[in-house]
């Protein structure tokens, strides 16, 4: 259970704590179920009774039985999906509660634990991820054979991936992992290369979607849309979408594929650019190969110290972090509040367990929906005559939640920005309200991106 408590990350798995003689049978059973989800509960109860109620002895007994059972079986097929740990909360009865509005579901704020500064809360089960973060996760998302075929296909593709460069404080730095952008057709590939910019530069590493990448797109689209509706129903106030969140069906038309080769390759805390995604963007992210840690933390306003105890707790949330395990063949959905209210990262690992097919490599596919209304032909240009980038104010209390267009040329190696700034206005559905048309003759006839599932 220690893994579900807020703590500093250990260098090795935490030792088992001595049994508490006063702990109820339900608590002890919950511990065993979380560790051995594939063992029937009746069998766990029998073992617990035979061990005189000692959880530690029961764990040793079950582990030895499983090892003997594995010796009598053939090795598991290559690339098989690992078992997942279940949530303790699903096995411990909690009296139902209602939020202040009288609804049957606790609000997200009430369910969130306080994560202390410098501590990490480790989450493994889908129930805990949904309750305590802005994400939801689906384990064993694809049929195993399809997941393995997709992994092998993208491992072969990864030889074409590249590392982008950007300028930070007058220093040119290189991304700590390799990446590539995939679109639907050769025509879209050419358009993306010529029209879309990232970090102040045009992205030259654009490729057409591979057969397996295209084959799973409809499944991803359906799953993400189902998760969006669940989130609105179960978490958001009054069961309604967030302001600026699009009411339209989420339809991915671009995919960023990242390769993390080895435990040291990572990406620091960040939020994704909203320039072509718009406000309250949703991203569907598939993990293949080696399991890695996806970490998130809240963003709190700078002025919270003067706002009392309640804000101090919010700041503690933001300065602590939550770790989500991303096993092979899992789909993580970053919901509409993620980019504005949270930051996320892939943490470096001291060690990793090699995957049978990918070795030390992890492949990550992030499906994105580029809105037609935010096509490059509509994006404001700064005084450098480059496309501005869309960002959200996240820390300054009096303007927090507002969107702005900024010059980003200062992030391009060897360039300096012009200081361009313009407030961005959107309707309640996240569609831009342009003060004047942005389109020039050169961009007027540029086609929109095509949905992968079409």
Automatic annotation (TrEMBL):
It comes from the Eukaryota. The keyword Ligase does not apply. Residues 83-92 have a biased composition (Polar residues). Residues 1-11 have a biased composition (Basic residues). Keywords: Metal-binding, Zinc, Zinc-finger. GO terms for biological process: DNA alkylation repair. This is Fe2OG dioxygenase domain-containing protein. Residues 382-427 form the GRF-type domain. Residues 24-67 form the CUE domain. Residues 1-23, 66-109, 432-454 are annotated as: Disordered. Residues 251-371 form the Fe2OG dioxygenase domain. One of its GO terms (molecular function) is zinc ion binding.
């Amino acid at each position: 259970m220690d893994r579900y408590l807020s703590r500093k990350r250990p260098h090795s798995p935490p030792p088992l704590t001595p049994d508490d003689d006063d702990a109820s049978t339900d608590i002890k059973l919950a511990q065993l179920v979380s560790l051995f989800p594939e063992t029937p509960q009746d069998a766990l109860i029998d073992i617990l009774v035979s061990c005189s109620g000692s959880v530690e002895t029961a764990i040793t007994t079950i582990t030895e039985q499983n090892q003997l059972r594995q010796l009598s079986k053939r090795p598991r097929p290559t690339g098989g999906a690992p078992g997942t740990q279940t949530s303790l909360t699903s096995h411990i009865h909690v009296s139902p509660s209602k939020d202040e509005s009288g609804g049957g579901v606790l609000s997200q704020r009430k369910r969130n634990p306080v994560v202390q500064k410098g501590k990490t809360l480790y989450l493994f089960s889908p129930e805990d991820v949904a309750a305590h973060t802005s994400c939801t996760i689906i384990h064993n998302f694809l049929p195993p054979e399809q997941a393995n075929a997709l992994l092998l296909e993208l491992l072969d593709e990864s030889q074409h991936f590249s590392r982008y460069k950007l300028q930070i404080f007058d220093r040119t730095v290189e991304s700590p992992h390799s990446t590539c952008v995939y679109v639907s057709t050769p025509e879209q590939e050419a358009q993306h290369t010529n029209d879309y910019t990232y970090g102040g530069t045009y992205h030259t590493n654009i490729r057409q979607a591979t057969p397996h990448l295209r084959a799973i797109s409809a499944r991803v689209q359906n799953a993400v849309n189902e998760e969006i509706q669940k989130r609105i129903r179960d978490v958001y106030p009054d069961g309604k979408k967030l302001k600026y969140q699009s009411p339209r069906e989420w339809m991915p038309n671009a995919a960023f594929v990242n390769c993390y080769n080895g435990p040291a390759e990572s990406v620091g805390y960040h939020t994704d650019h909203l320039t072509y995604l718009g406000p309250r963007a949703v991203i569907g992210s598939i993990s293949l190969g080696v399991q890695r840690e996806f970490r998130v933390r809240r963003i709190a306003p700078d002025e919270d110290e003067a706002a009392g105890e309640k804000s101090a707790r919010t700041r503690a949330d933001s300065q602590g972090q939550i770790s989500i395990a991303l096993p092979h063949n899992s789909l993580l959905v970053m919901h509409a509040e993620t980019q504005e209210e949270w930051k996320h990262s892939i943490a470096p690992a001291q060690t990793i367990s090699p995957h049978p097919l990918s070795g030390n490599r992890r492949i990550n596919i992030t499906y994105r929906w580029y809105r037609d209304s935010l096509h490059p032909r509509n994006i404001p240009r700064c005084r450098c005559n480059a496309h501005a980038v869309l960002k959200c104010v996240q820390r300054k209390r009096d303007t927090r939640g507002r969107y702005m267009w900024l010059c980003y040329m200062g992030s391009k190696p060897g360039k300096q920005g012009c200081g361009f700034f313009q407030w961005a206005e959107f309707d309640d559905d996240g569609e831009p309200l342009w003060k004047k048309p942005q389109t020039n003759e050169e961009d007027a006839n540029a086609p929109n991106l095509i949905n992968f599932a079409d």
